[in-house]
Amino acid sequence: MTATATTRHPIDHVLAAFAAGNVPELLAHIDDAVDFRIDHYRDTADVSWQQARDKAGLLAVLQRLAAEVFPRGTRIVETESQTLGNDWVLTRFHQRFFYAVQQREVESVTWIVSHSVQGRLDYFRETVTTIAPTGA
Q: How many domains are there within the chain?
């Protein structure tokens, strides 16, 4: 995982914990009043449930993601985070995983805009831009 300069942002910790399947560590970097949503570009999958307004709601989304999208977890290929100022960060997240919705191995590139307060994410917007079969 890489971050611009040598700064690790809260989003970097969240993504590393997500890939490791370490939910307690992930939640340690999330504010109680997080505003969370995942959107998909030109995908027909129902993602209306991939949003939460607080940490309890996020936990429910994570549990459903684990069962319906990432049953075998995920592997980070690369991340790159760029500070935008005032605790805002833009992250390019490239991952590889078995996508249960399509029943095949895929690679995906997403863009995440996040905001943190006192080292904990209080805003998370992920836009999934690509989901492509790996051929594996």
A: 1
CATH number at residue 125: 3.10.450.50
How confident is the model at residue 102, as a pLDDT?
A: 87
Distance CA 6, CA 39 (A): 29
Burial of 55-71, coded b for 16+ CB within 10 Å and e otherwise, reads eeebeebbeebbeebbe
Q: For residue range 92-128, list pLDDT tens digits in order.
A: 999 999 998 889 999 999 999 999 999 999 999 999 9
pTM of the predicted model, to two decimals? Answer: 0.90
d(CA 136, CA 134): 5
Report d(CA 105, CA 65) in Å as an integer.
16
pLDDT tens-place string over residues 3-59: 444 568 999 999 999 999 999 999 999 999 999 999 988 777 778 899 999 999 999
> What's the domain range around 15?
10-133
| Residue 1: inside a domain | no
In a domain, 92, yes or no: yes
Is position 5 within any domain? no
* 54 lies in some domain: yes
